[in-house]
Structures are given as structure tokens and as C-alpha cells.
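Intended use. Records like the one below are meant for learning the mapping from a protein sequence to its folded structure. Do not use them to infer anything beyond what is encoded.
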Amino acid sequence: MDAPADRKIVLVTRKTRLEDLLIRFHTIAQAKFYIEHMGADFADYLQEHESYQTAMRVTLESLEEWGRYQRIDRSFLPNFLFAPDDIVVALGQDGLVANTIKYLDGQPLIGVNPDPYRYDGVLLPFEPRDLKLLVVETASNQREHKTVTMAKAALSDGQVLYAVNDLFIGPKSHTSARYEIQFGKQKEIQSSSGVIVSTGLGSTGWMKSIVTGSVGIAAGMLNKPSDFVYPAAKWDSETLRFAVREPFPSKASDAKLVFGEINPKKPLTLSSRMAENGVIFSDGIEADFLDFNSGAKAIITLAEKQGRLIV
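Structure written out for the chain above:
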């Protein structure tokens, strides 16, 4: 491995909402007209953009002092090749950190909060001014890190998709998904609005909302208040949780196998029965998906790789 000072820093950035608007409307005046016509505050877009640009300048100053660095937009992540000894910095919201981790294989990731007044930043423990010391300590392996378990969906044709928060398996639009689900010795045909598989890191997100809603509905139907407290999983948990969304029991489908915990010895298997519009996507990025139509078989397991988030 190269000496610490020779390690390259890869800075992952994102477009601000204002930049996305300019791509769509070409000028600030037209973007402002659209936002204000919709009843929103355009000044908030300008303030967010300026804060991000300020954070970018401070970040780049630290990286230029370091020497070797490369900046990429998050849209290039699926096709970018990280070197084994790269140090990765994500400047953005928590979602950018999660979206970056799944393309890494053990490289340390530093989450930097560009606007602490705007973002709580569960995955963003640092600010741009911290980077100068952080990269030195990280390059010398003097910083602690948290291990992040990932989920993996592997199709029978060899395609693979990783997730840091959760996987969604189901219909592309608001229609019913049809599939065969197998978990251990249990197997059944289901019709639902899809299956969610959550990692420890993602256990406080989509999965929490599904479980909380289900418990609340059951308590209401039974007219019996529930004292259930949702248990979040650890980021490095050796299990994944899955839940079936809105399973529909009928003559042709069952709804008994609706929740479980996947572990290294017990994967989840799904076989599609959808003629079209079946997909698997991860971490809420619907544009990055695998087709999951009739004949496709997906095996859901813990990923063979883990994320390293610097703390």
C-alpha cells in the first residue's frame, strides 16, 4: 500500500436544488418564477446553494493542501472505480453518505455536513473545517470507524444490487406485485405492494414506519392500546429485517409470511410472477434498479462487504 501522504482523496458532491432548477429552467429568473408561483420561498433555495458553495470552498482548500484528490458528482458513482486505498469524503446530506457507501469496498468514508443549521446529519459528524486534520489521521489509520452492514440482492442472471439502508422489491408503479416468497421452510405465493428489506442503519427509516403503522392499525382494530416500542437495530447488525407491504390474502395468494430476520444462514428468496414493471431498487434511488419480471429469481442476503464510516 502507498504511504499515507500518497493516498488519494475522492470527494463526492451533489447538485443543490438551485442547480437542479437551473438545469430545468436555464435561468435564475425563470426558476424563481416557477418556485414562487408554486407558493414556495425562493430565498431558501438561494441560501441553501450559497451555504453549500461556501462549504465546498473550505473543503477544497483542505484537499488542495493535501495534494492528491478527485471530485466527482454522485451521478457518476455507479460507474466510478475506487482504488483500494482511496479515502472518500461525502459533502452533502445523509442520503449522499448512504448512496456512496454501497459503491465502496472497505474504503474509509468521511461524512461532512455542509450546513449544520439545516441538516441534523446522523451520518455527517464533521464540518468542512475539520477535514484538514481528519484526512491526515484517516490516512495514518488513527481514526476510529463504525462498521455498516449492507444488504445484497443477487439475481439468477448474475446481476447484483447493494443497499445501505433498504431494498425494495415490487412494482414500479402503484400496482400489485405478484411473486413467490421463500424463507426457511416457509413458502407462499403473495400479492402485495412490495417487500422491504432493511439493514441496521436503515432500521429507523422505512422499516420503522411500516412496523409502527402495522402495530397502530392492529391496536385500533382490536380497540386495545399498544405499548409497543420499536427496537432499532445496530449499524453492524448481522441480521436484516424484511416486511411485506399490504399483503392481500385471496384464493390465489397468502399473507402469512410477512416479517422475518435474514441472517447468514437464512436468506430470503423471491421469484417474480410479474409480466412487467417489476423492479428491485435500493436506498430510495429508483433510477438505479434491477428488472424483476417473470422468470427472475432474487436471493437476498447480507452483503459480503461492509462500509467503514469514520467517526
